[in-house]
Write a structure and sequence with these properties.
Structural class: alpha+beta
Helix content: 25-40%
Strand order of the largest sheet: 3-4-1-10-9-11
Number of strands: 19
């Protein structure tokens, strides 16, 4: 795990540089610093980079000793552009720091003012906490929890399980008491210990719609942003694994690709990409393999001179034969057709029972926060180990390109009723021919109109009442129509809410009621729900990166980059809501980059039967270990769940009953994360005044009253 950390305090007079240590007179002379840290600049407001950062991932420019900029991550800006951004940020123009290609965190020091920018999606969050007469900040929450010896915030864990995609329930909290996060699209500004959180993006008015770009111009903007995002990774210095294992040589029945796949834990040098057969991963693979205009490449194409892009496809052998025939085979066929491109080197990674979800839960790293990817980390690691040192993934494409169902309410607010007809008709077709399918457009229209006429405060209060009365859905949505109708609300409970205790739901309900009393959001319901969904997905992606981390490998998700998110938000809502919009936009992106030959079925919607069958198979195979895990769970000690109820749900899921599998994944991953956190030893800090206890030293309170 890589992170940066620093602080601002009411320290000695400006210009005095003392020992690198904790601010404040009570700690003067002590040396408190992160373990294994690289000092970027020192007192009075020090900044460190911690972890296995590559040399090109840590860049600093300065005008003088107290006017400087640090950029950590993959940033496509030149040194001169960084210097111009530093001058702009010194004058208060923070948006300039977020407009460069790539995924990074920028920190500006101008005198005693320190500014830390978060990203638009939330994949690179910024956390802060009061400490030593000042404020400490970091891009990870656990180091700050160590610094202040924080305890667990049980109320936040309850909200994370009950309403994972509702910002009003999560607020600015973290699983650690006293450690806060800044919202996506905001920056943390510190002045001698005092803090201010300011937004750098304009917010659309609720009464007047934002100016709509022409669809062609908006798609061109997405193309340019996505091309620049991929180019930023391709032009960065290449890195090889630190300790490559030797090739075992020719093995009967195994080719070079199979031998490479057996060298577990060591990625291949160069550039690679996922190639799942979906439109998002295929777009990134084709762009990275055939992006024109890159210097030093044959005919201006490819990831390098004479180099082919490594495309990795995962073949789930453990899925049922029925699911493979209906979903997996077409995806593999599309991936194979795309991989016929001579600039791609295709590797198919086969996964059996060892790659099922919930396999090998005993091992795994401690992530900064809990996330559903903890139950499938080994599955993802098996695929990524056959990838490259720099590996593209298509995460986030659905959230930034697709229209959230609640956007239909935004169209009604703008009096664009006719644009609802096509998506409603598509939902009717997805439901199949039936007597009720004729009423689907009317049902969708009524739900969208109800949301458009529901004020923000009333919607949040209604959600709070539903939690208090346990008016939760008994079964998961069975089709696209049910899922869309379920999403046409200001707030909805998560899939794990049905297994929480009444006390936990009451705590979350109080959080929602308190949020409803605050000033109303200026966002439209569709825009607000879409941004919340993106923030939740970015959080899960960050946990996924940490849980499935392979040494010497970097995962790149260009769809979560600032400039790509910004370009996608400029897409007109009328274009977003049309069926097949994502595939059409990505086809236009590839066409603009000179890539026209796409396989049949490009952009076909992927059914969820394969994922459901795989999750059920994983629960069935790991049922014994899961029942043991929930025999005496820490979540029950905290008063969040009843263990016997969860064990009953696990048995039902293993038998194939319609149980919300996403909710079981949330519960299992949170329980795993708690156990790994409690069993952790040591601290992130060193020095004579460093905290001696680990975070959450007292463990989980038994039957804590919420």
């Amino acid at each position: 795990m890589r992170w940066l950390v620093g602080w601002s305090s009411v320290a000695a007079s400006f210009g005095t540089v003392g020992a690198v240590g904790a601010p404040g007179t009570e700690h003067e002379g002590d040396t408190v610093q992160p373990v294994g840290a690289q000092l970027l600049w020192g007192d009075p407001d020090p900044l460190w980079a911690v972890g296995d950062w590559r040399p090109d991932e840590v860049r600093t420019v300065s005008i003088d000793d107290f006017t400087r900029l640090a950029v950590l991550g993959c940033c496509g800006a030149s040194d001169e552009e960084l210097r111009v951004g530093l001058f702009a940020a010194r004058g208060g123009a923070l948006r300039h720091l977020t407009a460069w290609p790539g995924s990074y965190t920028a920190v500006v020091q101008s005198g005693r003012r320190v500014t830390v920018t978060g990203d638009l999606a939330g994949a690179r969050p910024v956390f802060y906490t009061p400490w030593a007469n000042g404020t400490a900040y970091a891009t990870a929450a656990l180091p700050l929890a160590d610094l202040i010896e924080a305890q667990l915030d049980i109320g936040h864990l309850a909200a994370l399980l009950a309403c994972p995609d509702v910002p009003e329930a999560l607020r600015d909290g973290t699983p650690y008491t006293g450690v806060k996060r800044i919202p996506p699209g905001h920056a943390l500004v510190l002045r001698e210990g005092s803090r201010e959180i300011t937004g750098y993006e304009p917010v659309a008015s609720l009464a007047v719609a934002a100016p709509q770009l022409d669809p062609e111009r908006a798609v061109d903007g997405v193309r340019d942003a996505l091309v620049e995002a991929v180019r930023a990774r391709l032009t960065a210095p290449r890195h090889a694994p630190e300790t490559p294992l030797p090739d075992p040589g020719p093995v009967p029945g195994m080719g070079p690709a199979e031998r490479r796949a057996r060298r577990r834990g060591v990625p291949v040098p160069g550039i690679g990409s996922d190639l799942s057969g979906g439109s998002a991963s295929a777009t990134l693979a084709l762009l990275a393999a055939g992006l024109p205009g890159l210097p030093g490449t044959v005919l201006g194409h490819g990831a390098g001179a004479g180099e082919r892009l490594l495309a990795v496809t995962f073949n789930d052998l453990a899925a049922s034969a029925r699911a493979r025939e209906s979903d997996l085979t077409p995806e593999l066929e599309r991936a194979g057709a795309i991989a016929a491109n001579p600039r791609l080197h295709h590797v198919v990674v086969a996964g059996g029972e060892e790659a099922l979800p919930y396999a090998d839960l005993e091992t795994g790293p401690l992530t900064d926060e809990p996330g559903p990817s903890l139950v499938s980390a080994e599955r993802a690691r098996l695929r990524l180990q056959s990838g490259s040192a720099d590996h593209f993934v298509g995460n986030g494409a659905r959230q930034v390109l697709d229209a959230h169902p609640a956007r239909l309410a935004d169209l009604l607010i703008d009096r664009r009723r006719r644009h609802i007809l096509r998506p409603a008709t598509a939902l009717a077709k997805a439901e199949g021919a039936s007597p009720t399918s004729l009423l689907v457009p009317l049902t969708v229209y009524r739900a969208a109109r109800r949301l458009a006429r529901t004020p923000y405060r009333a919607g949040i209060e209604e959600a709070a009442v539903r939690l208090t009365r346990r008016e939760l859905t008994d079964s998961t949505p069975t089709g696209a129509l049910d899922a869309s109708l379920d999403a046409l609300t200001w707030s909805r409970p998560g899939p794990a809410a049905r297994w929480l205790t009444g006390e936990a739901l009451a705590e979350v309900s109080i959080r929602l009621q308190e949020s409803a009393l605050r000033p109303a959001s200026s966002q439209r319901p569709g825009e607000a729900r879409a941004r919340a969904s993106l923030a939740r997905h970015a959080h899960d992606h960050r946990v996924f990166e940490q849980a499935a981390e392979v040494r010497s490998q970097r995962l790149h998700a260009p769809f979560l980059d600032n400039q790509v998110v910004r370009a996608c938000r400029a897409l007109p809502e009328t274009l977003r809501v049309q069926p097949g919009a994502r595939a059409a936009i990505l086809r236009a992106v590839l066409s603009g980059a000179g890539i026209h030959d796409l396989p049949a079925g490009w952009g076909a919607a992927t059914a969820h039967t394969t994922a459901t069958a795989t999750a059920q198979a994983g629960i069935r195979a790991a049922l014994t270990s899961l029942l043991t895990l929930f025999e005496a769970p820490l979540l029950a000690d905290a008063g969040l769940i009843e263990a016997r109820v969860v064990r009953k749900a696990l048995r039902a899921a293993a038998e194939g009953e319609p149980v919300p599998l996403d909710g079981l994944a949330d519960l299992t991953s949170t329980e795993l994360w708690l156990r790994r956190l409690i069993s952790r030893r040591g601290t992130c800090w060193t020095g004579s005044a460093a905290p001696r206890q680990r975070a959450v030293a007292a463990g989980v309170p038994h039957r804590r009253s919420l």
